[in-house]
Design brief:
mainly alpha, Cytochrome Bc1 Complex, Chain D, domain 2, 3 domains, 0% strand, elongated
């Protein structure tokens, strides 16, 4: 077996030397990799996409959705967590959830490998306080493809009359209350991306009243952005904790108030 593999590699290297072409190099890389599996999802990106909406970007439970829960999300950085939590206990909680809380089990949506990576990440990063590299899928200055790329990627004409998906009808009044409680700290009460947290966020939150945003974000796009979140930014996937109706409500509020500018100012919803 070993001699056969060495012979195969030698043949591949000879092919490279004979052709010297880019195609040969690419072929060699695939051959020498031995059919390696596609890289596993980054643990920090998994935490951002599935956990940060409740537990916060820093694992301290101070998330944008924290005020919506009867039982506050776990603060992994607290003295109690450092004393009580083990990697195995975290893994069980991710897998099966925690009865009596908003923590659901993820075993039907994440693989065993992903759950293990999440448990390792949470335990090392937050419980033990070990620093680690930031995920390339979260941070960076070109979130959402780069704010400056909006105009270039905006279609010539977006159908601003399109309704919300799945026949949903949004209530802008309820959506305004949700927005003030969960979104205004980043996007600002006026939708201009200048909320109190915006100073600490890079890239900056979306400015909904910017002409590029007004040309691009109809109800469908807003619903998708709120529901799915956005990689390379701090925008979480709200579908993990909010109902489709809540997402429809806040999407309708943002559309009417900021994209079209027809609804009352957000502060009037207090």
């Amino acid at each position: 077996m070993g001699s056969t593999r060495r012979a195969g590699k030698a043949t591949t290297v000879k092919a490279i030397r004979a052709t010297g072409g880019l195609a040969a190099w690419l072929f060699a890389a695939l051959m020498l990799a031995g059919g390696a599996a596609v890289a596993a999802p980054d643990a920090a990106a998994l935490f951002h996409n599935y956990c940060s909406v409740c537990h916060g970007d820093k694992g301290d439970g101070r998330s944008r959705a924290a005020g919506s829960f009867a039982t506050m999300p776990r603060d992994f950085t607290s003295a109690d967590s450092k004393r009580e939590l083990s990697r195995e206990r975290i893994l069980l909680a991710i897998t099966h959830g925690r009865p009596g809380t908003a923590m659901v089990g993820w075993k039907t949506q994440l693989s065993e490998g992903d759950i293990a990576r999440l448990a390792d990440y949470i335990y090392a990063r937050f419980v033990l306080g070990q620093a680690g590299p930031e995920s390339a899928a979260i941070s960076g200055t070109r979130a959402h493809g780069g704010r400056e790329a909006d105009a270039a990627s905006t279609p010539v004409q977006v159908d601003m009359t399109a309704g919300l998906p799945n026949g949903l009808k949004g209530d802008p009044k309820r959506g305004g209350a949700f927005y003030l409680a969960n979104c205004a700290t980043c996007h600002g009460a006026r939708g201009d991306g200048a909320g109190p947290r915006a100073y600490f966020i890079n890239p900056k939150p979306r400015n909904f009243v910017d002409p590029a945003s007004r040309a691009r974000y109809n109800r469908v796009a807003l619903y998708a952005a709120v529901s799915e979140g956005s990689l390379r930014s701090e925008m979480p996937a709200w579908k993990q904790v909010a109902t489709p109706q809540q997402i429809a409500d806040v999407s309708e509020y943002v559309f009417q108030t900021f994209i079209q500018g027809k609804a009352p100012d957000a502060t009037a919803q207090r």
